[in-house]
Every structure is written in C-alpha cells, then in structure tokens.
Amino acid sequence: MSTTxxxxxxxxxxxxxxxxxxxxxxxxxxxxxxxxxxxRRLGQPKPKALxxxxxxxxxxxxxxxxxxxxxxxxxxxxxYQSMAIRSEIARLGVADGVTLVDNPYxxxxxxxxxxxxxxxxxxxxxxxxxxxxxxxxxxMIGRLLRAEPPNVLLLDRMIEPGDEPVKICVRDxxxxxFAKKPVHPHDWHGESVGFFRFSPExxxxxxxxxxxxxxAGRTTxxxxxxxxxxxxxxxxxxxxxxxxxxxxxxxxxxADVVRAQREILPQIADLQDA
Length: 274
Hints:
The protein is α/β, with parallel strands linked by helices and 274 residues long.
C-alpha cells in the first residue's frame, strides 16, 4: 500500500517490503531509536527527534551518547517526515554504522515502529531500545549498559502524578508490572524513561510477542504492552537501574520544551562540569 511523506498506510502486511530492514552486521550491542512518530500533542511541524536544544538535535545527542559508550551499530525507525531524518544524518556525517528502517504505518503508533525492527531484534545482538523524544544526561546510557541484570529498564523515583507516566512497579525488589495503570499489587513504583536493554534471547522474545500483536490486529497498542507481557511472564529476568539523580525529560508538550530548555539543559551542564 502506498504512502506519502506525511501519511501512513492503514494496515501492516507481514509480507510488505521494508526499506533497509536487515541489520548491517551482527554486533555485541545494537541500538534501536524510535523516531517515526508525528508528535501531534507537541504541535511541531518536524519530527520530535529533530528538536534542537543548545544547538543540537535530540537525534544528534542520542547518536553521540551511544557512540561515546561504545555502541556504534544504530538503527533508527523513521516514518513521519523521514527525509528530514535522513538529511540530519547526512548533515551530521554519521551514516557509517547507522541504518534507517522505514515504518509506513507510523500513524498507528509505537508498536509498529518496534515491529519494523523485528529483524534486528532477532539478530543475536543485545539490544538497547530508546524513545527518540527524550533529553537526558548521557551518563544514563552508561548506567544502562553496565547494569547487572540481563534485561534492564531505567527508573526515576521522582514520578509525575497521574496516568500519563508509564510506571515500573516493584514488589520485594522484583518487577511485577509495567503500565500507565498497573493492575498487579506492588510496594512502590517509578517512572520509565523509555530506555531499555535486552539480552539477545529477550530481544527475540520481544519480536515474537510483537508479531503476536500484529497478527491479532492490535497494531495501535503501545509497544510497552508487549514489554509488559514479558515482564509479567518472566519477572526474575528483568531488573531496573535508578537514575533519579540524573536530569531528563520526555518531550510530549510545548511545556516540556520550555522545561527542558530552562531546567534540564542547565542541570546536564552543571553535572558534566562537576
């Protein structure tokens, strides 16, 4: 089914061709950055990954942080205004080691953006999965990579109230739920940053679970639902890293842009200068 640059096809087809879908090479660690979304709530005409803070786009910051921590095999899911992402990669001169995977169904939501990366999830590499719309202290990547559990989520105890944050729920130091509206009893919860590290086995399991969602027609679900299924089924295989002491912000609304510029950027600079 054909698409336009600002549109999206109505339904994924497991046999539909996908541009640059295969990993360039197998490595010990690969990163997937989800940058296909339109960001309607922000009201910006360009992809959120191209928002600039202190003269650097979020995408530039992601790539720099990953490479600084030894992750050079990077795959980016693109969709909305994908040519703008391609132009940014060219401007930065970072095409070597960076693969762009097209998601023509990006209007349906984040699950299909992960589904577009199913080949990479099955590549045999450990996987770092990242939302593109986050400004953060790059030391978060180091903590994620150095964590002992085979499968790791980043957790912030300073959680905003309400149903919007995705909550990482802990009971007896074990993850028991992962949702905006948790249903399983737990001792406490923190907010998910939207960054994950999966072992090769769990990355392949995530690909299988997302395949199940697509076959069932649940393409508008958020990808966190598939991760939640794995956590609930295999809680002892997951862990978390507390990053409450590091500044970060998800960029969803214009108020988040203002906060990022006025609060998060100065905090990142202060910590890096310390």
